[in-house]
Amino acid sequence: MTTVASGAVVLLLLWLALWTVVARDAFLAVAGFVVYGLLLALVWVRLAGIDVALTEAAIGGGLTGALLLGAVGRLRGTESAAATEIAGVGTRAVAALLAVGVTAALVLGVLMLPEPVPTLAPLVVPNLPATGVANPITGVLLAFRALDTLLEAIVLVIALIGVWSFAPDRAWGGRPGPHYQADPDGILAYLARLLPPLGIVIGLYLFWAGADHPGGKFQAATILAAMWMLVQMAGLADSPRTDHRGLRAGIVIGPLAFIAVGVLGLWTAGAFLAYPEGWAKPLIVVIEVALLPTLTLVLALLMNGPPSRGGTR
Amino acid sequence: MSRLLDLFSIVAIAAGAFFYLAGTVGLLRFPDAYSRLHALTKADNLGLVLVVIGLLPQVDGVLMALKLLLVWLLVMLSSAAVAQLIARSVRRKDTRP
To answer: Where are the domains of chain B?
Structure first.
């Protein structure tokens, strides 16, 4: 019975992927992509990867979908012109060949995996108690592969700087996005008043539960950022000034605290990003707490886009 | 007793699945955006509450049951609000000269 259900979900997923690629209308393609992300989250639940499922639903489907919808809005003016363009036979053949080639290489790679699949899981499990966290995902992300997580946080900050650099000179340091005007008695304003208190509690719960259960800073930051966006889109608050010192401090505090803890490890434990004996859990908590504002701010500001009005020059 | 509860769960979840199916048929078959929204919000909300009621006897612990109820309330809230927003944007498009 469950095999039939899994098979049906896989077929639906493949069909949806094809539909998303073939769709001519950009908005429809993004809608397909969001549903695809949610279905993929279901697949991860079925594979018992709850952490991955949460991340896929929050970031893959939710946040990326919202970013793509923003892009669709910006491209609306050029869409009809783009729709009339049809690539030549040669270009299409090369594109098809490339797509089929990549798929074939991936399929071959998966089929040719050695048995048993190489894994470090047996090494991680006995060493996990030393980190003081019970969720193996959090343990791997912040102890065994902390360097990856550090670079990830830095990449996000650089991505935000990249988005900001698209600002015209006159708007530099100003506020991003439009100032949304919504009916103060409308349903959106009602939702933006009712939902954020709940969302903040749920976000912080996910953040704190991440030590021992599925969850963590990324999923929590997505929810917190979504609540902030809701308040902005309902017109209850304007987007922040991008030259605000507190805002900029909040953006860089995560990577800076992470690097500080890493350098501390040079003296106390003999290696960059190594934790001294017995101090792993408190240091991991320090890094997580510092990363939460960074991730929340960066994700929300990526949604906001480059500064567009009210610059200092 | 537990047999009876299992039977209750099966009946409630099956009824919930039926209403989801009905809502989806409505979404696919109804002629305009308003009636499609009507089918989705009415039938799917009923389907969801039946599924949640059906699952309640199966969970262990009050906390888990409360989480299920919270999920139900949040989905109700968001689907009701989103239905309003979609209907409004459709009406704006319809009344545009």
So the answer is: 2-95
